[in-house]
Amino acid sequence: MDVKLKQCFITVDDPDKALAFYRDVLGLELRNDVEFEGLRWLTVGSPLQPDVEIVLEPPAADASPADRETLTRLLAKGVLRGVIFTTPDCGALCERVREAGTDILQEPMDQPYGVRDCAFRDPAGNLLRFMQRAAA
After folding, report:
1. Are 86 and 128 in contact (CB under 8 A)?
2. Is the whole model's pTM more than 0.90, yes or no?
3. Model confidence at 23, in pLDDT bands (50, 70, 90)?
4. Cα 130 vs. chain centroid, distance in angstroms?
5. Distance CA 105, CA 117 (A)
6. pLDDT tens profile 39-73
7. How many other β-carbons are positioned within 10 Å of the β-carbon of residue 15?
8. Distance (Å, rounded) from C-alpha 129 to C-alpha 108?
9. What's the longest Cα–Cα distance across the chain?
10. Cβ of 24: how many Cβ atoms within 10 Å?
11. Direct distance between the N- and C-terminal alpha carbons of the chain, in angstroms, rounded to an integer
């Protein structure tokens, strides 16, 4: 069976702030910017992975108003999950994110399961982790 990841979704409350963060701070490229019925979706991705995309989507665009409100509250609390990225230099990436004004939740550290990682939140409050293979 030939199965590959194509897209994952991250809920954001401000597409312009999200684009500035994911493109300008993390270095992802903008692949699509779509507006429909007053909502906006952005697609970003790493130039190193042309077949994988992250869709930055508005809170529960296809949900009821009550569900959309609940999701917006959860997003504001920072309890929604984002994604885990890899990088060859976790420390350098963490410094770049810090210089952009983002609060670091976890400084780069070696984990017992064989990676070095750090964590922070995007402008919408989504938890993002960046990992690199620990030195052998």
Report:
1. no
2. no
3. very high
4. 10
5. 11
6. 899 999 999 999 999 999 988 777 888 888 888 88
7. 18
8. 10
9. 52
10. 10
11. 33
